[in-house]
Amino acid sequence: MRGAVSQDVYVRTVERMGTLVTIQVVGHGANVKEISDRQAAVERAFDWFGRIEECCTRFDPASELSRLAHRVGEPVPVSAILFQAIQFALAVAEETGGAFDPTVGHRLEARGFNREYRSGQPVRVAPESSGTANYRDVRLDPERHAVTLLRPLLLDLGAVAKGLAIDTAARELAPFRDFGIDAGGDLYLGGSNPDGAPWSVGIRHPRLDDALIDSIRVSDRAVCTSGDYERVVAGNEKDGSHHILDPRSGRSTAGAASVTVVAPTAMLADALATAAFVLGPAEGIALLERHGVDGLMVTPALERHATRGPIFAENDR
Ligand code: AMP
Ligand code: MG
Fold first, then answer.
1. 181 C-alpha to center of ligand 2: Å?
2. Which ligand has an atom closest to residue 157 CA?
């Protein structure tokens, strides 16, 4: 018989990026100095969420991202954080032929996704674009960290910023090895849980609020989920519209109810979950397999489609 190893766990929850973020760090009989180091690292980890949100949000007219929308046609030097987020989003856009496209900002605004989550006030960042702008209208200069918008357009980094924040927070916590970050259901899990085993993650059933559709075990991995149940604008519930648009039609996508991706980084898991969601089962699972990540897609008819990797495949047979 093996006795459960009782560990001290430091847990703290704070509101960041419009969601609750919980960080837990497993202790290993730490002394006073180690405990205060751990608390300081957790505070630095939370600070990253605030800093990355400040750069990347389109809901604050003063954010770096929003200010960019007013400077069409000129190269604008931006922070390393914003540059990295845009560069990554454009790479995913390129790879998915624009199914994933960070220039969907105005189209999201037009569909009612224009309210600041704290105040509930509508935000209008920049004059309406022609509607035909896409990711090819954004140019990057990696040497100067400069971004040029070739046409009026509004970037939206909602599918990558949270992942980037989770990864940056995870780097602060890496010295402690065993830790978990949960940002509204998007996760990074380092090392082992307090029992010394891989972390156990329940995957939410997309249609039953309190049920799980699967449960997996991971270590040193991010787990991110895109679901059509996540953000629905009041009044739009009946027509099935939600927060992920197919840029090719300008409408909410209907091919998936939820997509969960397990990857080495949260930015990759976050973006690939959104991209696979737009692409639907066949192309979406192929995209995940090309990246060598694990994923599970549940369709609105509750069919399961999983990658061949080890994490979900066994459940599928
Ligand atoms: P997630 O909840 O991670 O799937 O991210 C969804 C968010 O990504 C939305 O709230 C939008 O901010 C943004 N988004 C919606 N549709 C797209 C798309 N086709 N390509 C890229 N980002 C999108
Ligand atoms: Mg995502």
1. 16
2. 1
Single pTM value for the model: 0.92
Of 117, 156, 226, the residue with max ligand 1 atoms within 8 A of its CB, to mutate for a pocket test, comes to 156
DSSP the chain: --PPPP--EEEEEEEETTEEEEEEEE-SS--HHHHHHHHHHHHHHHHHHHHHHHHH-SSSTTSHHHHHTT-TTS-EE--HHHHHHHHHHHHHHHHTTTSS-TT-HHHHHHTT--B-TTT--B---S----S---GGGEEEETTTTEEEESSS-----TTTHHHHHHHHHHHHHGGG-SEEEEETTEEEEES--TTSS-EEEEEEPSS-TT-EEEEEEESSEEEEEEETTS---TT-GGGT--S-EETTTTEE--S-SEEEEEESSHHHHHHHHHHHHHH-HHHHHHHHHHTT-EEEEE-TT--EEE-SSHHHHHHH-
pLDDT tens-place string over residues 126-170: 666 556 799 999 999 999 999 999 999 999 999 999 999 999 999
Closest ligand 1 atom to 157 CA: 12
Q: Going by CA atoms, what residue is nearest to atom 5 of ligand 1?
A: 159
- How many A from CA of 284 to the centre of ligand 2? 13
Is 228 near ligand 1, meaning CB less than 6 Å away? no
Q: Which of 17, 153, 244, 251 to mutate to test the pocket of ligand 1 (most atoms within 8 A of CB)?
A: 244
pLDDT digits (tens, 9 = 90+) for 256-273: 999 999 999 999 999 999
